[in-house]
Structure formats: C-alpha cells, structure tokens
Specification:
single chain; 428 residues; alpha/beta; Adenylosuccinate Synthetase, Chain A, domain 1; Adenylosuccinate Synthetase, subunit A, domain 2; Adenylosuccinate Synthetase, Chain A, domain 3; ten-stranded mixed beta sheet; four-stranded mixed beta sheet; 13 helices; 21% strand
Length: 428
C-alpha cells in the first residue's frame, strides 16, 4: 500500500496536472481534496491535450477511481460541462470511476455573483480572484450556512436552505452592490436537475477512501493550487480560500495523517505566479518575457499571463517545511534551455539581514531582495533526454544544487509537457 500526496510547492501552475497524470499510472485511486474549478491542469497524452479544472487527472486512465473529497467546493454546472468535454474527447466518466463526497459544499449562483461584485468593489485593491464563487462558498462553509451535496439529495431540505440563503444574499446583492436579485425558482429547478444527474456519483467518500487504503490500494491525493496560495501559509490575502498544504489532505479527504506515506512537491525550474502580491525574483525585463513565451505561461482557467522569475529556493524550503515534502518533482527545465546564465535565489536580504523563510507580512516580503547564485546554462537537447544520465551536465549541476539547498531529494524531472518527457530519478 502506498498513499502519497502530490501538491504544488510554489504559487501553483507548476505542472501538477502532468505529474499527477504520470504518477496516477501506478495509483488505483486519485483524490482531489481542496479547491474548486478555479484551478486548471493541462495534461498531454500522445497528440491530445486535456484541460481539467475539477475532475481528478486520473480520469484519463479509465480504470482509476477518481474522488471529489469533502474539502472541495463543487460547482455542479462546471462539473457537468467538464464531464461533457471529457466524453467528447473519448474519456468515459461513470459511477465506476468517479465519486463525489456527500459532505462537499456546493457553489451556488449567488456565490459567483458575490465573488465578482466584491472583487469589482475592491477596485485597485482587488485580489485577482477568478470570480467562480470559491471564496464566498468557503465563507458560507465556515459561517455554517453552506449547502452540501447531501442537502441537494433531499429535495425539501435543499429548498429550505436555498430559500434562507437566497433571501439573505439578495439583500446584499441589491442593497450593497446595486445588482438585480436572483430568482429562487430558476435556481431551485436548475439544481434539482443537477441532483438527478449527480446522485449516481454521491457517497461517503471518506469511508470509501479509507477502505481502499485498508485494502492495500495505491492512493494519490491531488492538490489543486500551490503552497503559497494556502490560506494560512500563503501570501495572504493573495491566496485561495482553502488549505493547499499537505495537512489539508486529512481534512479535505477524511483520512488520518498516519495513512500517508510520502509527499511529492511539484516545482518549476523557475517561478511563476498569477495576480497581485510581492514576488521577490520576478523578472520585469526581456528575460521574464522570454520565459513566459517559451514556457507558454498563461493560465489554463483564466488565460491570464503569468508573472515569471528565477527559481526561489526560499519558497521551496518553506514548502518542504510546512508540507513535509519527501521529494521534489522539478518540471519544465526545458524552458530554461539555451540560456547562457541562470540564477537561483538562495535567500532574502530583509533590511540588511539574511533570512531563509517567507515572512508573513506582505510589506516585509515586498522589501525582500533576492540573494542569487548563478549557474551556466544548457542546450535544448534536454527535451530529448529520457534518463538522468542523458541530461546535459549543467542541468544536472543545477538540479543537484536544488537538492543541496532544500535538503530534499529530487525524484522526478520533467523535460517537456508529454508523459514520455518525464525522467524518474528515484522512488517518490
């Protein structure tokens, strides 16, 4: 039995989709434990490209059980659109390979409306939310007024909870934001339609995942966003609304920490982020633009251009600490190919003091100046390497130094977007 976590070690967009897809080959169960359809994973299999937002990446194999855990906030409309998209590409989604936790909270139309309205009201102080209702749904969950999947399965319970919530949300939408109220009957009928289609997938996912582990199945827990988007340990408030670190698995999937064997942190060979907030190694020059274009650094969900910079080892060390990362999978070293020199941030200068952690205060992080080590680059032959020995010598020096600086081994190296462009260095 092997139960392991795959999560992002930076600000997200590290290539988790590809790595989850690759590691899912040897897994029998793939569990999504947090977030919603605000995440985006791109997976390339042969000549096909799949863009996933909510359904676990293991769905592409057909014979894996894919689980939406209780920690996920679920938009039924987005989910069924994604199922339709996948089936259009020949990917079968059925109750045999896909289940949904009855404890997951539902994203409602008023969550999306409030998300967009509040973001617009923030003006220049906007956070950069996707507007998909993620934050407001988690707000209701914490406020104990949320509607769960199990509520949707009981028509009268859902009706009562929807009426109570919508009356209150319409007051906010109309009186605070000056928007039109939302119609109860249309939402009620729409979601009853989802309930009918959804009920075949709904079960107690915690029990199912526990039983699978106890039956010696290999279980992969899939994170949706990166370490620095964690609501507690990320660059707050420019974060998501859930716990993206490894500890979130126990809460979001309903299993104990003793059932987890290893944690794989996915890290790009450089750093990117979307949205606002301090970014110590950001490159606001031709080099940053070069990395963006070569690495195709545009959001899967939003299409927004990602901010790009040199690899930040301070971030990786923080991720290793709070998530107990046992190995890193370093992706996209092919993007750096052809550069004469490459830099890595090994620490921050904060008001004349060297620190090796990410400060909680964004004001302090904004003052942090990166301390760099410089490396010789490597050529484009890296994308054709299929073993560690075939990598250019300078690429191996670069990777070895990451291991030394983080105190964590590298188990996998990605040299391109396809499944076959993946080099296994050691056991995860």
């Amino acid at each position: 039995m092997s139960s392991f976590i795959v999560l992002g070690a930076q600000w997200g967009d590290e290539g988790k989709g590809k790595m989850t897809d690759y590691l899912a080959e040897n897994a029998e169960v793939v569990v999504r434990f947090q977030g919603g359809n605000n995440a985006g994973h791109t997976v390339e299999v042969g000549d096909k490209q799949y863009k996933l937002h909510l359904i676990p990446s293991g769905i592409l194999y057909g014979d894996k059980l894919n689980v939406i855990g209780n920690g996920v906030v679920l938009d039924p409309k987005a989910m069924f659109e994604e199922i339709e998209y996948l089936e259009g590409l020949g990917v079968k989604v059925s109750k045999k390979n896909f289940i949904i936790s009855d404890r997951a909270h539902l994203i409602m139309p008023y969550h999306r409306a409030l998300d967009s309205a509040k973001e617009k009201a923030r003006g220049k102080n906007d956070i950069g939310t996707t507007g998909k209702g993620i934050g407001p749904c988690y707000t209701d969950k914490a406020e104990r007024s949320g509607i769960r999947v199990c509520d949707l399965m009981h028509k009268e319970v859902f009706k009562e909870k929807l009426k109570e919530n919508l009356d209150y949300k319409n007051e906010i939408l109309t009186k605070i934001y000056g928007l039109d109220s939302l119609d109860f009957n249309s939402i009620y009928e729409e979601y009853l339609g989802y309930a009918e289609k959804m009920k075949q997938f709904v079960t107690d996912a915690s029990v199912r995942v526990y039983d699978e582990i106890k039956n010696n199945k290999n279980v992969l827990f899939e994170g949706a966003q990166g370490n620095l988007l964690d609501i507690d340990y990320g660059t707050y408030p420019f974060v998501t609304s859930s716990n993206t670190i490894a500890g979130g698995v126990c809460i979001g999937a309903g299993i104990g920490p003793t059932m987890i064997n290893s944690v794989v942190g996915i890290a790009k060979a450089y750093t990117t982020r979307v949205g606002k907030g301090p970014f110590p190694t950001e490159l606001l020059d031709e080099m940053g633009e070069h990395i963006r274009n070569v690495g195709h650094e545009y959001g899967v969900t939003t299409g927004r251009a990602r901010r790009c910079g040199w690899l930040d080892v301070v971030i990786l060390k923080s991720a290793a600490r709070v998530s107990g990362i046992t190995s890193f999978a370093v992706t996209k070293i092919d993007t750096l190919a052809g550069m004469e020199k490459i830099k890595v941030c090994i620490g921050y200068d904060l008001n004349g003091e060297t620190i090796e952690y990410v400060p909680a205060s964004l004001e302090d992080l904004a003052l942090c100046k990166p301390i760099y080590e410089e490396f010789d680059g490597w050529d484009s032959s890296v994308e054709n390497a299929r073993s560690y020995d075939e990598l250019p010598e300078n690429a191996k020096i670069y990777l070895k130094r990451i291991e030394e600086l983080t105190g964590t081994k590298i188990s996998i190296v990605g040299v391109g977007p396809r499944r076959d462009q993946t080099i296994v260095v050691s056991e995860i």
